[in-house]
Amino acid sequence: MMSKKRLFLIDAYALIFRAYYAFIKNPIVNSKGFETSAILGFFNSIFDLKRRENPDYLSVVFDKGGSADRSAIYSEYKSNRNATPEVILDSVPYIYNILNGLGITTLDLEGYEADDIIGTVAKRAEKKDFEVYMVTPDKDFAQLVTENIFLYKPARFGNDIEIMGVQEINKKFEIDSPIKVIDYLGMMGDSVDNIPGIPGVGDKTAKKFLKDYGSIEGLYKNTHNLKGKLKEKVEDNQELAMLSKKLATIITDVPIKYNLENLKISKPSNEIIISIFEELEFKRLKENYFKLFKQKDDHEIKEQSTSKVEYKGKFVSQQISGKTGILILKQNLQKIKIFSFDIKYYENDIYLFFCWSKASVYYIKAEKKKTEELLNSFKYFIESNTKKIVFNHKSLSKILYAYGIKINNFFDIKIGAYLISPGSRNDFKTILKFNLDVDSNDDSLSLDSIYYYEKLFSKIYNDLKQKNLIDLLEEIENPLSYVLMKMEFEG
């Protein structure tokens, strides 16, 4: 009999926060002063899972904007939580990029918590005859456990992993079915998520009520059996109890689109992983990567290689949305000294692209009618003195000029390429092929274009320097580009 396929779904922020607080007294800081505790701890857990289970199907699930449904029915939901530590905000983009480099998919959906996405994917996978493991220390997931869905609690502080099935959940909560964990949480509440529960009802009382009455609904059909202050508290808070049960219920029909087969771990990218691990100074983690993912460290991937082959590797793209995602993006833009930038329109949407480092493309998508709002929200960064690499400054400036925004301190790849070879074709595809020997995707929204901006800048800038053309570029061509744009704009 063929064994079932196994899918592991990881509760991203549960493991990220756990890793961060595990090192809170002795944080790990690299030579650049960047705290890497959350990233290192998170990937130690991922690598431990890889070593123990060697899963074929694995996805890391993120919250994105919180639960719109729960906040709508209870404004105090999770309102007791402190702001996310800055260290974690700084760490999340690295975590996304490393996961992509490892060939591990990520799932998220605006307005839904990771719990709900995991619940939805787990139930769908079960129907496809998968065995599902929810990797999280969060007890709320116990309600989802079935004969084919398990709670997988990662190792911590020397303790071994704990895999909980139906029998273990029933024993822990003293119930006859894991689904009753919802009633348990509804009765006693959850201080972590600020779910109120029934005042005066704790762990022991909730378990007794479930044993005697089976559910919250059963409890309220039998309040005549209660006595004293407890009877009074229970009867006075029926509405609160039902609300708490609803808040504690994990949604299993989230409208998220994905293909189960795409949750297979794909071939990792040495270029991405080595680049990021060396930047973060993860020497041991890099060694473990080669062992666990059966990759060869052939030393051919170098941070400053002059070989054209290095430009043909994979890269990571990440759509940014929600207040938290945009906040993280802006925080990163404040720290870097140079970034690539572009704007593209496609059908009824505007796309804003940013790229820095060797393997990351970030983009924001919005409806065209929100163009002014989106561009103005990034005006500070566009007008800052941070070096910006662009392609076709005149065209880009025309879009921005309409909203009172000017690109400062820019390098235009198109102008630079023209100065080096005035008689050559000056389209992006030709410039890319001539300078880096790379064939470009013709798709108008191809992310590989902006990915190559920084590499083209390095090559073309050096060529300009050798030909003593930097002054011509900066003192004549760049200002002229702005003048020509204004003339075209104003007719």
Describe the structure.
The protein is an alpha/beta fold and 491 residues long. The chain folds into 2 domains: 1-303, 5'-nuclease (Rossmann fold, 3-Layer(aba) Sandwich); 305-490, Ribonuclease H-like superfamily/Ribonuclease H (Nucleotidyltransferase, domain 5). The protein contains 22 helices and 12 strands. It has helices at 12-22, 37-53, 68-73, 86-102, 114-127, 166-173, 181-188, 203-213, 216-220, 228-236, 238-248, 270-280, 283-292, 322-335, 371-377, 379-383, 393-401, 413-420, 428-436, 448-451, 453-466, 470-490; strands at residues 5-11, 57-61, 105-107, 130-135, 149-153, 162-164, 316-319, 338-346, 349-356, 360-367, 387-390, 410-412. The protein has a 6-stranded mixed β-sheet with strand order 3-2-1-4-5-6, with helices on both faces. A hairpin with a 2-residue loop joins strand 8 (338-346) and strand 9 (349-356). Helix 2 (37-53) packs parallel to helix 4 (86-102) and helix 18 packs parallel to helix 21 (453-466). The longest helix is centred in the last third of the chain and has 21 residues, at 470-490. The radius of gyration is 27 Å and the shape is elongated. 36% of the residues are buried.
